[in-house]
Amino acid sequence: MFAALRSLVRSPTNLSIGLALVLCAAGASGAALLGDLDGDGAIDAADEALLVGYYGAAQGDSNFEPAADLNHDGRVDFHDLALFGTGFGATGGDQDTTPPDLLVTLNDIPDDMNDLLVVPPEGFQITLLLDSAGGSAIDTSSLSLVSDQDIGTYAAGTELRPRFQVTPTRAAWKIPAGSELARTTHYLQASIADVAGNITEVSYGFAVRDFAYGPPLGNLQTIFLDFGQDRSLGPEIDFLEDLRSFGLSSSADPAIESLMRDRLVGEIVARVHPYYGRNSDGSPGPDAANVVFIDTAPGGTYSRLCVGGESSLGAAFLGAATMDVNNMNESQDECGGGAIFGIFPQALDNLWGGDAEFQASFDPLMASHGGTPVGEDPLDTVVTAPTFDPGSATVEELTRWGVIENAVDAFAQTIASVIAHESGHLLGLVAHGPTPAGLYGGTTAAKTDHNVTPSGASPSENYLMNAGGTFSFNEMTGRNGSPLPVFRVLNWAYLRDRLVLNSQVTGLYPPPQISSASPNPLELDPPVSAQITISGDEFVETPWIDLLQEDLPTPRPLQNVIFVDPQTLQATANMYVVPAGVYDVRVTNPDGQEVTLVDGLEVQ
Amino acid sequence: MRAGRATTTRLAFLALALRGLLGADCGGGESKTWVALVPDVNTVGTFSLFTVDVAVTSPKPVQAFELGLQWDPEMVLPVDVAPHPDFDDDGAFFTSPHFDLMAGTLDRVVDLRHGGPGAEGNFRIATLQFLALGHPGSTIIGPTGGGLARADGSEPSAVNVVPVTITIEP
Lengths: 604, 170
Prior knowledge:
heterodimer; A: 23 strands; B: Immunoglobulin-like; 5-stranded mixed β-sheet; 14% helix
């Protein structure tokens, strides 16, 4: 049946029709022409051939080319085609001489934070962000990228373009497991051209190191959300008191109250997981952090975060948790200190009680605001039942059900956002200072442990680890056009173990080299100690020097190391530390890069 | 097969809605834009070929369009789609249309006018040829998705869409 179909489509031969039109049409001179995708100063069949390849693509699609989105609505469709058709045949436009923008980065970390990144030997991602910069379309086939170091089986200097998934706006390659990059400085040379032939070349450096204490989330981190404590309010457990405060339950109907408690706990846990790339049931999504949340005490190792009540620090404190950089402690207990640590829903009213959306959500249920709490309306038995079917409900039932569902959604989403935020602290966010030692976490006042920009300001984006006082109720709940908060790209790279926090790396230095140690042999006993000169290159002030021998359980350090210049080091060997024998000489620069000269020194 | 029946039902609702719109417009309102399927005949025999044109009435020039169609795949089978010279200026669609014969849909029927003014007034933009299958009865062929765009990339504020009913006789 398919063979019976015939349709007329553009073929190479009828491209000449468009070219003929070019010769007949005159266009304005001295400006770039809208739709001149190849940047040759004319809108012709060649541009149309390019446009065909982009047609139908939307922002985020692999073939989306911004230069083809003539009306800038994020989609290449018949609206753009109309604009293109209108200008077709125009000539005399500027030739495109604007090279495309090319940003090389790692793990999609944006330009203002990617100056000095340290990544593990495998698992991170090299990303190239491409932009036609208002000129002609990107020629994706022109992309080139080589490294000055081996990457797995790809030798230094190998063209890595085939490894990348390339679109007109982005190219990415995840360094595969087992690649084991050298723990040194790597430089990438990348280039891209647009279809007009303008070329941009970029060099980008980064460092590779091991995690000093293993990856922060190398083990599955379980976080037990403890909703069952009574730390601050009475007489019930705090979380139940919270539900009553916001009209989400009432002591008047214990059965509905129990049902609502279970419902809210389930909703909250289900809504925390997506912040960490997981499905609502906790199963991993395609790019999930290695952390799960549960509401019953598990066996084995876990951290605990209490949820409920009011902070002893004050009514406006919605949550607090100890920042644990590199997640060194996988058994944190964030329920201690009276009621200092944990999540405190009572603060919601203090923070957003004057917010219109907050009032619309909770006033109909809060007795203190003239509402009727869940469990006190005669309809509640029906509309809170798990078997309730809105499709066959009365108008009155539907109205009451809608009020309750709206409040459940608002409460669950807000508390889930707070839990996700405090759990971020518990996992190491936001480590202070710039990369590579930190993650641009602030160090002053409310910004302490929270996202700041490289200039020290709070980000304007709705990032989950921004300082607590910066969120609106809509930002916490994703309402009224505000997207839900997300982890900043830099934070997410850390949570995915794609970034190494390393205070040793202060610059992108090449690895040290050793050519000799002298005198060699070195005579000790007598004297008790003697000076050694190490010759080589790329020494950085001031390295460690160790002597290694298979028979010795630990390296033997040389003492009084003096950095003379990048080619020369001096140090002292002591006969009580270095017994006679043949040693490997190892120099370790302050940034952790090391070099070993095998059998480089004999001590007599 | 069940999908084909559902398609027919949806189109029947569409036809009813459009009849209402049509009635309102006939009362003497301002000029509106129409996309209508125009058959050369609307009663055909089983296993016979028939042609349907996509006709446009537009008070302002149309520079480009994208069109989709749907039909009951149990009743008719498309055998050809071609640009109409009323609109088309280079003998080819902009890109290759996409048929789904099982679902009874055609999409990505796209074309543009290259330079110069767009088409306005009454004109046709595409011609389709169908084969009536062996099931006597009535079926609807209707436009779906896409739209018309003017020289500045904008769409007409309202486009009335008119499907066609084909009666297949034994």
